[in-house]
Amino acid sequence: MQITLSNIEKSFRDPSGSARRVIAGISADIAAGALVAVTGPSGAGKTTFFNLLSGLLLPDSGTITAGKTELTKLSERERDRWRAKEVGYIFQTFNLLGDLTIIDNVVLPHILIGSGAKGDLQKRAVESLTALGIGDHLHKYPHQLSVGQRQRVAVARALLASPRLIIADEPTANLDDASARIVADAILALRGRSTILLASHDGRFSAVKPDLTIALGGEAGHA
Amino acid sequence: MRKMNAFFTLVIASLKGRLFATVVSVLAVAVALAVVAVTGIVSFAIAKQAFESGRKYPLIVAAEGASETQIILSTIFHIDKPRGKIPFETYETLKKDPRVTAAFPVAAADSVGVFPIIGTNGDFLKDLGATYRGDIALADSHDAVLGATVARQLLMDIGAQFTGTHGMGGSADAAHEHADHTYVVKGVLDPTGGPEDAAVYTSYKAVWEIHGGKGHKGHKGHKGQGEEEEEHEDHEDHEDHEDHEDHHDHEADHDHDRYHLSDGMLTAVLARTGNPVQVFELQQEYSRPGLTAVNTAGAVRSFQKYFNTAGLVATFFAGLTLLIAAALILAITLMALDARRRELALLRILGIGRGTIALLIMLETLIVTVAGVVLGFLLGHLIPALFADRIGVLIGASIEPWHIGANEPAALLGALLLGQVVALIAMLRAYRMNLVEESAKN
Ligand SMILES: Nc1ncnc2c1ncn2[C@@H]1O[C@H](COP(=O)(O)OP(=O)(O)O)[C@@H](O)[C@H]1O
Ligand SMILES: [Mg+2]
């Protein structure tokens, strides 16, 4: 998926009431299938940037166009649908629903957002979970798994419907080595097929040269 | 359809995830509704029985000193202790009275298990109009006829023998057994739905014999126990005294002798007249020292008023419980909603809309209330169905476990409506949660 950012800005009001500009006039052309590294220190606005690109938030100004869709023109409901269809979102913590089994965590959201037929989703979920080393834990609950195993489940869920845009926000932070390797490999394997936006301090990713780097934090300041 | 399944799986999983809160919520609704149902069933059974008794026995003559309600409770429902005694001749004169079309003697004092033994005569049993097996003439003082529930519960049939216990069943003063007077079951009534199902009938003469007096002299080997009676009453058979066994334990209890029926005494006479005016006439005539004459239909009406008020009070408290249950469910739901912000934010990130999440929350709450309503209805009728016999003995009237009381539909509907309101509040709250901002902060 080709993505064009044109001068997007986003500010938040902090508790004292003054506005703080987190994203300050970013423009970029992201080619379909590109691997984009989003860098910057903690608090630089990486998560905010991802939320804008996934349509969870709207920028204060500027436009985001993804493929033929101008995201910044859509209503919340339309952005929800777009995100459901196009985005696989992997983030650092709180990735799974505690009351659902592992297999349900992967399949159920996709049924709810209409990603496909249940039987097909189920089959692909089992394959994917097995490939990620979770095949023996399909009917366990998240609390019965390690943090690393849970993140692998989140990856399986994010990638199940072959999204054209993958957003990975610190996907390997706090993971054991084996899990981090599996997660990193699973994400990087999709390079070329899906556009990947990645924020990570993990050396496993720095070994791979990104097609584009977006550095955040430099311009951020009080508006 | 598949989406609906997934939706329900999510809802059920979340309810199961906080099982304790869910169970407490469901039970709170269920208990409130069950109370309404049971109250309706019991009051309907009592009202029906009371109405029936007013029609069947428009005049009851009992001893002075008891209230009309007490008299109806003890003679018709067999649930209060009979208070005091009246002479047998009251029955004889009423029976001879041309205005009286039917009169029946009642002499109650003993019980077998929880069931009262009613001393009466064969006419009374025939007048019930119930079908029966065996013989219900009560010709001999050892003959007994069982109500259907008694026969079933005590596993007795024609030919079985038993002895009575002094005092009304179950009470603390059911002190001693009249082991010396053995009854033989001669007949068993078919179920009638009335208090007779839970009663044992014998001849009033049997009651006299057991509690002392001349009747017992005719029976060899019978030892009367009327010793203390004679301290309070003038009896001509003082010479019997030395035949009696000692029952010192009784002498301490002066109240006790009220339930002892000696020769020639009854607890009540039930009567029917040609027309209602004659009930009033007879009531006037028989309201004299030592006697109370009750116009049953009239008494039942005021009794009914009292009972309706009691039912209303019970319903009021059930309504209050329901409101508390609703508030509880709302509090639990909102608390759970807050605790689940992150999970709900996750759903939003996955592309699930605000409306869908709000619907999810609404459905969770609705399921709890509907489950409470269904369980309440079932408990409110299944418990009476399971314990129909016991409740029947307790209230002196057979219940219809599946009867829907006057207040029940309103209570069920009210609970559903309250549930809907709570669900809508929770839904609105969920809809307006700013989950994305929330997730952006982590
Ligand atoms: N919803 C919000 N409301 C107010 N401030 C926010 C909100 N989301 C993020 N911020 C602020 O924006 C800044 C950037 O945050 P974030 O995008 O999470 O940075 P990063 O992911 O690079 O650590 C932080 O100072 C953070 O406190
Ligand atoms: Mg972040």
Please describe what this structure looks like.
- Chain A is an alpha/beta fold and 223 residues long.
- Chain A is 33% helix and 25% strand.
- In chain A, the strands form 2 sheets. Chain A has a 5-stranded antiparallel beta sheet, covered by helices on one side. Chain A has a 5-stranded parallel beta sheet with strand order 6-7-8-3-9.
- Helix content of chain B is 53%, strand content 16%.
- Chain B folds into 2 domains: 2-47 and 304-441, no CATH class; 85-217 and 239-266, no CATH class.
- Chain B is elongated and about 95 Å long.
- In chain B, helix 1 crosses helix 13 (354-386) and helix 2 packs antiparallel against helix 11.
- Chain B contains 16 helices and 12 strands.
- At the A-B interface, helix 1, helix 2 and helix 3 of A face helix 1, helix 12, helix 13 and helix 16 of B.
- Bound molecules: adenosine-5'-diphosphate and magnesium ion.
- Adenosine-5'-diphosphate sits between chains A (12, 22, 40, 42-48) and B (437, 440-441).
Summarize this structure as a short list of keywords or feature phrases:
heterodimer; A: 223 residues; alpha/beta; Rossmann fold; five-stranded antiparallel β-sheet; five-stranded parallel β-sheet; 33% helix; B: 442 residues; alpha+beta; 2 domains; six-stranded mixed beta barrel; two-stranded antiparallel sheet; 16 helices; binds adenosine-5'-diphosphate; binds magnesium ion
Share of helix among residues of chain A?
Answer: 25-40%
Distance between the termini of chain A: 33 Å
| Bound ions, cofactors and other small molecules, one mention each | adenosine-5'-diphosphate, magnesium ion
Provide the gyration radius of chain A in Å.
18 Å
- What's the CATH C level of chain A? Alpha Beta
Determine the most extensive contact between two protein chains.
A-B, 36 and 29 residues
* Overall spatial form of chain B: elongated
Distance between the termini of chain B: 35 Å
Count of DSSP E strands of chain A? 10
Largest sheet of chain A: 5 strands, antiparallel
- The class by helix and strand makeup of chain B works out as alpha+beta
**Uncertain residue ranges of chain A:** none
If classified by CATH, what would the architecture of chain A be? Answer: 3-Layer(aba) Sandwich
Please, what is the CATH homologous superfamily of chain A? P-loop containing nucleotide triphosphate hydrolases
Could you give the order of the helices and strands of chain A? EEEHEEHEHHHEHEHEE
Q: Strand arrangement, largest sheet of chain A? A: 5-4-1-2-10
The protein's oligomeric status is heterodimer
The rough form of chain A would be described as: globular
Rounded Rg of chain B: 30 Å
Chain-averaged pLDDT of chain A: 92
Query: Helix and strand succession of chain B?
Result: HHEHEHEEHEEHEEEHHHEEHEHHHHHH
